[in-house]
Amino acid sequence: MQVALSGKDRVPVEPAAAFGRRARIGFPGQDGGDVQKGSGRPLAEGAGPGLHFDSAGSSFSGWIRGRRMVEPERQQKGTNGRNGSSAIVQQVLRAFDELEKEGRPLGAAFLTLRAGYHALGEPDRMRLFLEMLRRVEVSKASVAPLIEVLTQCDEGDPRWPGLLADLRRRVLSPRLRRFRKLAHIPGGLKFILDFRGDLLAAQREGGVELGALDADIVFLLEMWFQEGFLYLEEITLDSSYRQIELIKNNDMVHPMTRIEEMGRRLGKDRRCFALYHRLLPFEPVIFIEVALTSGLARSMEEVLAPAGEGSRIDTAIFYSINNTQNGLAGLGLGWMLIGKVVDYLRGENEHIRTFATLSPIPGFWKRYLRPVLEGRKTDARLTCREVAGFFSKKGAAMVRARSEGEAGGDEAFCRALARILGEEQWVRDEELRRSLEGPLKRATYFYLTEEKTGRGKPLNPVAAFHLGNGATVAPRHIHFLANPTPRGLQESCGVMVNYVYDSDWLGQIRRTFQWFDLMEVRGIFRRR
Predict the structure, then answer these.
(1) What distance in Å separates the CA atoms of residue 207 and residue 218, rounded to the nearest whole number?
(2) Minimal CA–CA distance to 348: which of 415, 401, 292?
(3) What gap in Å lies between CA 382 and CA 450, rounded to an integer?
(4) CA–CA separation, 475 vs 320, rounded Å?
(5) Beta strands 496-497 and 315-323: pairing type?
(6) In sequence order, what are the residues at sequence separation of 6 or more whose Cβ sits closer than 8 angstroms to the Cβ of residue 513?
(7) Per CATH, which fold does 230-358+504-522 belong to?
(8) How far is Cα of residue 30 from the mean position of the Cα atoms in its chain?
(9) CA 410, CA 390: separation in Å to the nearest integer?
(10) If both were cysteines, with which of 31, 58, 231, 288 could 186 make a disulfide (CB 3.0 to 4.6 Å apart)?
(11) Which residues are catalytic?
């Protein structure tokens, strides 16, 4: 989940110190009223009317003690109006054009643009993206004469630097200029992030090349999400209720149904760190949950159980990392966040020497192993015959007996295995579990290390993120039934994996992000 932040060819911007002046500078505007407030789900079960809780300033621990809370208002999203959608697309484009005109008030144009955009359904948003590429672009006529002069000019000519500067100015994307103006308006940065999230989704699902439009936005985001703009903050039981709720609502790796569950994830040896942008201070852009343990944690049960009294903590387990803004995908913030937290924890506790994850394996069962077992045509390197070879004779006989399937060769065996793993009852059969453990771990390791995309990266996206960022994995790091919840079983037959980071990795991050050590770290207090 990575393109490193680039320091080259950036558009000049004012010093970061100007952030002290609220929305009066050439940076994305701050708008406390336009901050996304979570998913709109109830804060907790049992929240009743007539109670009061100051969610903005009160601490989560205060809420736990007082049990005072209210049902939040549902967040209303934009409608996907169909009638007159073509007219709305044109209205949005006209509002986008207004941003280019000097002396015009930008606020009204932004409100029109945002309202119109939110009224569009997915097909019409695709039309908008394509129209932006076609209509809002540098024209050939605007650059052809200058290019002709340049080709006839010698590099030693005194005019050469000025001609190049003029060419750079002329080829600067008009979309980029408008997005930059848009970001000066309160609420503009959040809109741009949501816009890019939709753009990436459209590009994945529609197969249409929208890279030029995306490149304009990425160019700006790489400037805005760097040193001076970002800070790290620890989320604790003393953090505001609002921040706790945002973490709870945005944890998509290990979702929670009740906010009280956050109590198990925050404490002396259970930590949470969030990365914030200075102009989006009410909503983290990405956060990570950490368990401090004695040795590698091999299951979610170990992660959520507090460390025993007197146990020597020597390991930090990252078990949930969530990007709350889809529009920031590909900027390397996850990699940098892990590195900053590693650096912080090492400074806090010198005994912590091992840093690893306990990660899910999304797609392993439904999109990978099950199709192989059922004999469907796939691009997988793993074959039914190899899966059957993972089992001992005794284990294979047990699978056949438990499934009550037909006798036969490897294909019949794999169909029987698919029927067993497709139901959750096998988890309660101790003898069957023992027969399945070894083969499932071998199949998982093969999936993580041998199955590749067309670009040679690991097929599993989580593996691609961690292995691509310097982590390692070995057979001993594959853990059977580490997450035996219904979701864990449907996702990966309950199997999880440790990705282990070595000591050289932090230096690599420092070399990539030269401003790494300058990032501010905030917290209620520093633990000792």
Answers:
(1) 19
(2) 292
(3) 9
(4) 22
(5) unpaired
(6) 4, 5, 226, 332, 336, 339
(7) Aminopeptidase (3.40.630)
(8) 22
(9) 11
(10) 31
(11) 359, 466
Q: 352: which 2 tokens?
A: 């912590």
Regions of the chain with pLDDT less than 50: 1-56, 67-83, 516, 518, 524-528
Q: Strand, helix or coil at 197?
A: helix
What's residue 13's pLDDT? 30
Give CA–CA dist 164/175, Å, rounded: 21
Pair of tokens at residue 338: 């892990």
pTM summary value? 0.75
Q: Cβ distance 148 to 140 under 8 Å?
A: no
Give the residue from 36, 128, 119 showing the smallest Cα distance to 78.
119
Under 8 Å CB-to-CB from 101, ≥6 apart: which residues?
Answer: none
Residue 140 is which amino acid? K
Q: Which residue has the tokens 């399937």?
A: 405
| Gap between the Cα atoms of 453 and 457, Å rounded | 5
Q: Centre a 10 Å sphere on the Cβ of residue 80 and count the other Cβ atoms it contains.
A: 14
Helical pair 393-403 and 430-450, crossing angle rounded to 10 deg: 110
The DSSP element (H or E) to which 510 belongs, if any, is helix 504-512
Domain boundaries, the chain: 230-358+504-522, 364-497
Closest among 427, 424, 423, 448 to 436, alpha carbons compared: 427
Q: Measured between alpha carbons, how far is residue 22 from residues 17, 32, 147, 181 in Å?
A: 11, 11, 42, 16
pLDDT digits (tens, 9 = 90+) for 249-261: 999 999 999 999 9
Q: Where are the alpha helices (DSSP H) in 251-403?
A: 300-304, 333-348, 370-373, 384-389, 393-403
Please give the backbone phi and psi of residue 192, each rounded to the nearest 5 degrees, phi first.
-65, -40
Task: Give the whole-angstrom CA distance, residue 319 versus residue 60.
Answer: 22
Say which residues have a Cβ less than 8 Å from residue 420's Cβ, sequence separation at least 6. Answer: 399, 402, 403, 426, 432, 436
Quick one: tokens of 378? Answer: 């796939």
Residue 412 has what pLDDT? 93
Q: Residue 259 and residue 133: Cα distance in Å, rounded? A: 44
Q: CB count, 10 Å around CB of 35? A: 16
Q: Tokens for 48?
A: 């009743």
Q: Are 160 and 153 contacting, i.e. CB atoms less than 8 angstroms apart? A: yes
The answer to whether residues 89 and 131 touch, using CB atoms and an 8 Å cutoff, is yes
Question: Are the C-beta atoms of 403 and 420 separated by less than 8 Å?
Answer: yes
Strand ranges inside 34-157, DSSP E: none
